[in-house]
Write a structure and sequence with these properties.
Rossmann fold, six-stranded mixed beta sheet, four-stranded antiparallel beta sheet, 10 strands, globular
C-alpha cells in the first residue's frame, strides 16, 4: 500500500547539505498498522509528507496504492490525496471559527452530495455528538483531535497518515485516539503513525526506528 524505494530528501543551505531522508526503504502492506518512531529532527515528518504526496523527494520512488505519486501533476496529486489519504496532525489544523461539524465537512469540499449525515455519524462514533456545534476553542485537546480524525475519515480513504497525533494529549485521550485508529485498521484501513513516544506500540503491528534520516534495520 505504501512503498518507498531508496528515497532521499536533501536540503542545501548556503553551507553544506542536510539529508532529511537518506536512502529510506519502507513497505507498509494493505491493512497494516505501522509506527515509525524516532527523536525530533530525525526525518519522521519529512517521511510522512513525502508518502502523503506533499513533498517531492530529491531521489527515489514513492508509490501509494500502486500509484507513483510524483509522476502525477500537482493537480492530479491533490485529487489523489483527497481520494486516497487521510491526515491527522499534532496541531489539529482545525478552522477556529467553524464548528466541529463544519470542520469535518471541509473534507467534502468539491464533492457532490450531502455528506452531513455521514459527518454527524462519524462524530457520534467518536463520542462528539454533544459537541458537534462547538468551535475548537470550546473543545478539549482530545475532542479537537477526534474532530480532526473524523475529518480524515469522511472520504473513506484507504490510508491514514498521522504525525504525532497524540503529542498534545493526556494519556487517556491519547489512548482514545489510538483505539479509533485501530478500529479503522480493523475495518481494512492502513495506518502509518510517526511519533517520538511509545504509546502507539501497543496498537501497531510493527514499530520501525528512525535516526538521522535512516530507518534502522
Amino acid at each position: 500500500m505504501l512503498h518507498c524505494e531508496q528515497v532521499s530528501k536533501i536540503y542545501r543551505p548556503a553551507k553544506g547539505e542536510v539529508r532529511s531522508l537518506d536512502g529510506v526503504e519502507l513497505e507498509v502492506g494493505r491493512g497494516e498498522f505501522v509506527c515509525v518512531r524516532g527523536p525530533s529532527g530525525c526525518g519522521k515528518t519529512t517521511l510522512l509528507l513525502t508518502l502523503g504526496a506533499m513533498l517531492r523527494p530529491t531521489s527515489g520512488g514513492v508509490r501509494v496504492a500502486g500509484q507513483e505519486v510524483y509522476a502525477l501533476s500537482p493537480r492530479q496529486r491533490a485529487r489523489f490525496r483527497a481520494a486516497k489519504l487521510g491526515f491527522v496532525f499534532q496541531m489539529f489544523h482545525l478552522v477556529p471559527y467553524l464548528s466541529a461539524l463544519d470542520n469535518v465537512l471541509l473534507a467534502a469540499r468539491g464533492k457532490s452530495g450531502d455528506l452531513q449525515d455521514q459527518a454527524e455519524g462519524l462524530l457520534a462514533q467518536l463520542g462528539l455528538t454533544a459537541r458537534q456545534h462547538h468551535r475548537p476553542a470550546e473543545l478539549s485537546a482530545g475532542e479537537r483531535q477526534r474532530t480532526a480524525l473524523a475529518r480524515a475519515l469522511l472520504n473513506h480513504p484507504p490510508v491514514i497518515l498521522a504525525d504525532e497525533p497524540t503529542g498534545n494529549l493526556d494519556p487517556e485521550s491519547a489512548g482514545e485516539v489510538f483505539k479509533h485508529l485501530k478500529t479503522f485498521q480493523q475495518s481494512g484501513g492502513t495506518v502509518l503513525v510517526v511519533t517520538h513516544g511509545a504509546t502507539a506500540e501497543q496498537y501497531a503491528d510493527r514499530v520501525v526506528e528512525m535516526r538521522a534520516g535512516k530507518l534502522l534495520k
